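Entry details:
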Amino acid sequence: MRIPEFRAFIVARFLFIMGLRMMGTVTGWWMYQLTRDPLSLGLIGLSEVIPAVSLALYAGHVVDRTDRRRMILRSVVLYAGCAGILFLSSITLDEGYNNVFTAIAAMYIIYFLTGAIRAFSGPSFGAVISQIVTLENLANATGWSQGTWLSASVIGHAVAGFLIAGSGISGTFFCIFILILISWGLFRTLQPKWPPTQSEKRTWESVKEGIRFVAKTKEILAALSLDLFAVLFGGAVALVPIFASDILQVGPIGFGWLNAAADFGAILIVILLLIFPLQKNQGKILLLAVAGFGLSILVFGLSKWFWLSFTALFFSGILDGISIVVRGTILQLKTPDHLRGRVMSVNSMFINSSNELGQFESGVAARLMGTVRSVVFGGCMTMAIVLITWFRAPELRKLNY
């Protein structure tokens, strides 16, 4: 944090992620209030994951051959435009100039566009850190970056709930638009970040190089696969609007706190890990943390009391925070700089697949099995995935860094 450029990057990323988390929170709440259908929440995830995964490998190739600062600036501007469109859509609906179908269609279209943008922005953010700090500071900088992301998520989720209650849907979207614009101004203060010079390769050959690196680095492949399946089945966050509105009946403010609960736990553990970093057995700790995450989701699904639900999500955040830090550190330490864009793009494919497809899976499962049963099923499946990984991926279980 003594490096001025790193401070500017961290503050800008904080505001940017806060805006995106607010956008996800208010969109989920608005969509469910308009449709009262859990599947509609799942379709948001599906509309975002299709372009995000489809473009991810090509995006990694581009990021490894482009000024990463420029890529970040373009992505942030496009996100601001998407927030502005949602703001205008909410105003016209509020004033009676629009119908519900058009507002719902606008949300799906916008999230399709943000999925395409994220395919390029995610690898850019991951790759640029190593160009701001030295190698000996990289692990610590990764911890700060993860902590910033999580703290921005906490505040974004909670503030969105309060803003929905106090300023309405339109007022919340306007605040999001302003936050993203401010972050763009701060990102502009960074110096250009060109990747290391490398020989020219055809696009597909360049893409395959990144895939081969992930495939042969067993620790990375196992960590990403574990996250993919655990979050795919344990993604109960997508159904929080239903729990807040129908099961717990706590309204938009309670919804905001439930959305932020996991992130509260995650930022707490990340701060503790910055002060007291894990010294050994990081792979085994990762597996136990993901198993505990599944158990927390199971408790959340069965709970009928707000504070028990909040506590379950809080502990799920603590355990997920351990997973995020260990997985992120593995990626940063084991990836050579000339491959960072492509490896981060493969990472973003796993993350997007788990988060957005998990959101879709949650919506479909809730429609078929009921909301509570679908969350309980997801928690049980997450614990089963950990058990399989424990025996099938000994490289991850024995990992130390």
In short: The mean pLDDT is 84. The two ends are 23 Å apart (CA to CA). The chain has one domain: 4-188+203-397.
